[in-house]
Model the fold of this input.
Amino acid sequence: MTVRRSVVCGVGAYLPERVLANEELAQMVDTSDAWITERTGIRQRHIAAEGEYTSDLATAAARAALAYAGALPADVDLVILATATPDDTFPSTGTIVQSKLGMTNGVAFDIHAVCSGFVFALATADNFIRAGQARCALVIGAETFSRILDWQDRTTCVLFGDGAGAVVLRAGEGDGTIADRGVLTTHLHSDGKFHDMLYVDGGPSTTKTVGHLRMQGREVFRHGVEKMAAATEEALAATGLAVLDIDWFVPHQANRRIIDGMARKLGIDTNKVVVTIERHANTSAASIPLALETAVHDQRIKTGDLVLVEAMGGGFTWGSGLVRW
Ligand code: UT7
Done:
C-alpha cells in the first residue's frame, strides 16, 4: 500500500550573536555559575539584539533550512511557526515570516504550545501533508523569551534563551511501514488544569500588557520527566519499536536533569540523547529544531536514522514524534 509521508529535506537554525554567560548573569541577579550549571546544565544563552524580533530569528532559520533542502520560498505552500513570543499580538508571526521570505503563495499561521510547540507544529504539518493539503511545509520554532523574563527573578531568568530552528518537510511516498522515510507517528496531549504552573502574567485580554514568565519550578520539573517519558513510550508502542531501536532521542531542552531523569526512567543510553542545553539554555519551541540542526550538522543524525522528539511545556502540553530521517 502506498501512503503519503512527510519527509525531512532540510534543517536550519539561527542564534542571536549576543551570548550571555552564567558568570555575567551572576553580576545581574543573586545566582552563581556553579548553581546554574549543577541544577540545570546551562552555561550560556543567546539574547536577541534590540530591534531583532522573533520573525527575524524565524526567517533566518527558515532560509537556512530551505537552502539545505535546495528549495525556494516559492516551493513552500505551508508555514507553521511555533512560538509563545510573537512579534505583536496579531497578525500571526508566521505571516510576517512569509512576507520576509518574499512568499506570496501558501498559508502561514502560528501554533502556541510553548515548549511543546515544535512537536505540535510538526504533527500539524504532517497531517496537512498526509491529507494532501500541502506538499512542502516549513516548520519553525522561534522564540525571544528574553523579552518575557523577569530579570529580577533568579528562579526563572537564568533558564531561558533566544533562538530559532526550522525543518522543511516534503510530501513523499512510502509503503506504510516503519522502514519509510518521514514522520512515522506523532502524539499530542494537553491538560489545562495545570495552566497556572507555568504561565505569563499578562496578555491582551487580561492586563493589556505583555507580562512576565512565572513558574512553579519543582512541579514543572516532576511533570516534565513523567510526561516526556510517557510521550516517548507512546511513540514506541504505536510503532512496535523498543528504546534500543531508536538512533537519536532529541528532547526539549529545559533542564539537563529532566533529560537525564527521563533517560534513566526509560533505560535510554545517554550517548543517544542530543543535548544542547549548555549552549542554548531553554529556547522553548526552538529547542528541538536547534538540537536537530546541531546533530545533523555534526553528522550524528544521518539519512535513515530513527529520531524521536519529545517535549513538555506550559498548559501543560506534551507530545512526541518519531521520524525516519
Ligand atoms: O520547558 C518547561 C519549562 N521549564 C522547566 O522545565 C523547568 C523545570 N524546573 C526546573 O528546571 C527546576 O525546578 C529549577 C531549575 C527551576 C529549580 O531547580 P530545583 O533543583 O528544583 O531548585 P529549587 O526550586 O528546589 O530551589 C533550591 C534552592 C532554593 O533555595 P532554598 O529555598 O533551598 O534556600 C532557591 O531559592 O535554590 C534557590 N535558587 C537559586 N539559587 C541560586 C533558585 N534559583 C536560584 C538561582 N541561583 N538561579
